[in-house]
From TrEMBL:
PROSITE patterns: CYTOCHROME_P450. One of its GO terms (cellular component) is membrane. It holds the Pfam family p450. Keywords: Heme, Iron, Membrane, Metal-binding, Monooxygenase, Oxidoreductase. Belongs to the cytochrome P450 family. The lineage of its organism: Eukaryota, Fungi, Dikarya, Basidiomycota, Agaricomycotina. InterPro entries: CYP450_sterol_14alpha_dmase (IPR050529), Cyt_P450 (IPR001128), Cyt_P450_CS (IPR017972), Cyt_P450_E_grp-IV (IPR002403), Cyt_P450_sf (IPR036396). This is Cytochrome P450, family 51 (Sterol 14-demethylase).
C-alpha cells in the first residue's frame, strides 16, 4: 500500500505480519512501539552521552517533556532530598517541558531569592497564574519596581496602630464562630468534631475580612463574595500554574469571578468616596491616596486588585499554618496545657478572669511564639519558590560541585527554584528535624535562635518597601527572603496567635484520626490530609 511504500522510502521496514493485523491493533502496537522508542532514546541519551559540564546535572527521567513531574508532584521534599544525595545542592529537572534548576541550602536560597533583577524575575515565573486571579496592573503584572512600591503601600496599611486594633476584633469573630457556628457553648454542645482545615479556612477569612479587608467585605462573606472567592480560588491550582489557559469550566468561572470580585471592591471604594462609611485601620482606606514615586496615583482598579492579591496571599498560608499548629497541639496535650498555663500566667487578673490578648503580648509569649515558629519550620506553606532566569547565573564551585571544584552556569531560559523547607528540615542543621519540637526555639544560642537572628537581623536592605533584613542566607525563612519577602508576617502572627490563644483558653483539642495526618502536596499550598479533630470545652467553662 502507499503507507508501507512511504515507510519503506524512509528506510523503516514494516514486518508483513503487522500489516495483516486489524487496524485498531496496528494503532495500539504502533503507539506502544513509538513510546518505547521515545523513552528508550531518552534514557540512552542520559546514560550514554556525556553531559554538558557547563550545566547543572539533570535528574534522570524516562519520559521526555513530562520529565520528573510525577516524582516532584507527589512529594517534593522526598524528591529534593533524594536528588540532593545524588546530584548535590544544584540540579535541573524537567517539568512538563520546562527546565527547572533547584538550588538548595542557604547558599542556594541566596542564589535565587537574593538574585539581582537583571538575573532572575518573579513576574516572569508567576504572572500567568496570578494575573487572571488578582487582575491587571499590580503585583506580577507590572515591573518589579512598581511591585516594590505597592509593597510599601501595603506596609503603610499594616502599622503598629492598625495591628493593635485587631486582636479584640479577632477575638470577637472567634467567639461568634465557635459559639454560634459550631455550637460549642455551655448551653449547647460541649464537644464538636470538625474538619480542621475547613473550620480554619472559614475562621481565617472571617478574621481577615473583619480586620484588614474591611467591614464591607466582612458583610459580604455570607453572600455573593463567598461564591466569587470560591471560583477565584478554583483558578489558583497547580493545573493553572502548568497550563495558564485551558478551555475548562473552572477557567471560565475564574475569569467571571475575577471581574465580579474586582467590581465588588470598586463599589466599596465608590461608596466610601460618597461619604459616610466608617472604616478605620483597614487596607482599602490606607491604599487610597497612595502615589507612585513618579507621581502617578494608584487607581481604584489597582486598589481592588491589590485587595484580591492580599486576600489570596493570606488566606491559604494562614489557614494551613493554623491547621498544622492545632493538629500538633491536638497530638501533644502536654504542650496544650503549657500554653494554657502561659495564658494564665500572663493574663490572669485579680478577679480570676483572663485579660484580653494584645498585639504587644504576642512578643511576650515565648511558647506561643515557639509553636508557630516550629510549625512554619516543618510545614512551610509554600514548598517551591520560582523565578525565571533571564541572564546566565554563574554557580561557584563551592555550591556547584565542591568535590570536583567544578563551576557552571544556570542558563537563561531555565527557572530557578528555591525550597527553604529543605534547609528548614535538614537533619544536618536541625536535631530531630522531622519531629515537631517547639522547645528548640526556647534554647538560648540554639540553632533556632541563630537562624532567626540571621533571618531578622542580617544585612538591612531597602528594596523599595522600607528597610528589611535580607535574610537570604538563613536556613529558616518561612516568609521568603530578599526583595519578594512577605509583608504579611506581622499580620499573620497577630491573627494566628490571637486565634490560638482563644482556642487554648476555652477548649482542649483531640485528634480524631488514628495517626497524625499526612501531607497533601497536590495543592498550591502544603495542606494536611483528612485533619479531623474534636474541640471540647474546658472544665471551668462547662
Ligand atoms: C510573599 C509566606 C501570610 C502577603 C511571601 C513569600 C512567602 C510568604 C514565602 C515569598 C514569595 C516569593 O518569594 O515568591 C507567607 C506565610 C504566611 C503569609 C507563610 C502566613 C503564615 C501573608 C499575609 C499577607 C501576605 C497574611 C497579606 C496580608 C504577601 C505579599 C508578598 C508575600 C504581598 C510579596 C510577594 C512578592 O514580593 O513577590 N509570603 N505569607 N502574606 N506575602 Fe506572604
Amino acid at each position: 500500500s502507499s503507507k508501507t511504500s512511504l515507510l519503506n522510502d524512509l528506510g523503516i521496514q514494516i514486518p508483513s505480519w503487522y500489516m495483516t493485523l486489524p487496524l485498531p491493533l496496528q494503532i495500539v502496537i504502533g503507539l506502544f512501539g513509538s513510546l518505547t522508542a521515545i523513552i528508550g532514546s531518552n534514557v540512552l541519551r542520559q546514560v550514554a552521552l556525556p553531559q554538558n559540564k557547563n550545566l547543572p546535572p539533570v535528574v534522570f527521567h524516562y519520559i521526555p517533556w513530562f520529565g520528573s513531574a510525577a516524582y516532584y508532584g507527589e512529594d517534593p521534599y522526598k524528591f529534593f532530598f533524594e536528588c540532593r544525595d545524588k546530584y548535590g545542592d544544584v540540579f535541573t529537572f524537567i517539568l512538563m517541558g520546562r527546565r527547572i534548576t533547584v538550588a538548595l541550602g542557604p547558599k542556594g536560597n541566596n542564589l535565587s531569592l537574593g538574585g539581582k533583577t537583571s538575573q532572575v524575575r518573579a513576574e516572569d515565573a508567576y504572572t500567568h497564574l496570578t494575573t487572571p486571579v488578582f487582575g491587571k496592573g499590580v503585583v506580577y503584572d507590572c515591573p518589579n519596581e512598581m511591585l516594590m512600591q505597592q509593597k510599601k503601600f501595603i506596609k503603610s496599611g499594616l502599622t503598629t496602630e492598625a495591628l493593635q486594633s485587631y486582636p479584640p476584633l479577632i477575638d470577637d469573630e472567634c467567639e461568634e464562630f465557635f459559639d454560634h457556628e459550631l455550637g460549642l457553648s455551655k448551653t449547647k454542645k460541649s464537644t464538636v468534631k470538625v474538619d480542621l482545615l475547613k473550620s480554619m479556612s472559614e475562621l481565617i477569612i472571617l478574621t481577615a475580612s473583619r480586620t484588614l479587608q474591611g467591614k464591607e467585605v466582612r458583610a459580604g462573606i455570607n453572600g455573593k463574595f463567598a461564591q466569587y472567592y470560591e471560583d477565584l480560588d478554583g483558578g489558583f491550582t497547580p493545573l493553572n500554574f502548568m497550563f495558564p489557559n485551558l478551555p475548562l469550566p473552572s477557567y471560565r468561572r475564574r475569569d467571571k469571578a475575577q471581574k465580579a470580585m474586582s467590581d465588588f471592591y470598586m463599589k466599596i471604594i465608590e461608596d466610601r468616596k460618597k461619604g459616610e462609611t466608617d472604616h478605620e485601620h483597614d487596607m482599602i482606606s490606607s491604599l487610597q491616596g497612595s502615589v507612585y514615586k513618579d507621581g502617578v496615583p494608584l487607581t481604584d482598579r489597582d486598589i481592588s486588585h491589590i485587595m484580591i492579591a492580599l486576600l489570596m496571599a493570606g488566606q491559604h498560608t494562614s489557614s494551613a499554618t493554623s491547621s498544622w499548629t492545632l493538629l500538633h497541639l491536638a497530638d501533644r496535650p502536654d504542650i496544650q496545657e503549657q500554653l494554657y498555663q502561659e495564658q494564665i500566667n500572663y493574663f490572669k487578673k485579680s478577679d480570676g478572669t483572663l485579660g484580653p490578648m494584645t498585639y504587644e503580648s504576642i512578643k511576650e509569649l515565648p511558647l506561643m511564639d515557639s509553636i508557630i515558629r516550629e510549625t512554619l519550620r516543618m510545614h512551610a506553606p509554600i514548598h517551591s519558590i520560582y523565578r525565571k532566569v533571564i541572564s546566565d547565573i554563574p554557580v561557584p564551585p563551592s555550591l556547584a560541585s565542591p568535590s570536583e571544584q567544578q563551576s557552571y552556569i544556570i542558563p537563561k531560559g531555565h527557572f530557578i527554584l528555591a525550597a527553604p523547607g529543605v534547609s528548614q528540615m535538614d537533619p544536618r542543621i536541625w536535631s530531630n528535624s522531622t519531629t515537631w519540637t517547639p522547645e528548640r526555639w526556647l534554647e538560648e544560642k540554639g540553632v533556632g535562635q541563630t537562624a532567626v537572628e540571621t533571618y531578622t537581623k542580617s544585612e538591612q536592605v531597602d528594596y523599595g518597601f522600607g528597610s528589611v533584613s535580607k535574610g537570604t542566607e538563613s536556613p529558616y525563612q518561612p516568609f521568603g527572603a530578599g526583595r519578594h519577602r512577605c509583608v504579611g508576617e506581622q499580620f499573620a502572627y497577630t491573627q494566628l496567635s490571637t486565634i490560638i490563644a482563644y482556642i487554648v483558653r476555652h477548649y482542649t483539642l483531640k485528634l480524631e484520626v488514628p495517626t497524625f495526618p499526612e501531607t497533601n502536596y497536590r495543592t498550591m499550598i502544603v495542606l494536611p490530609k483528612n485533619p479531623q479533630v474534636s474541640f471540647t470545652l474546658r472544665k471551668q467553662e462547662v
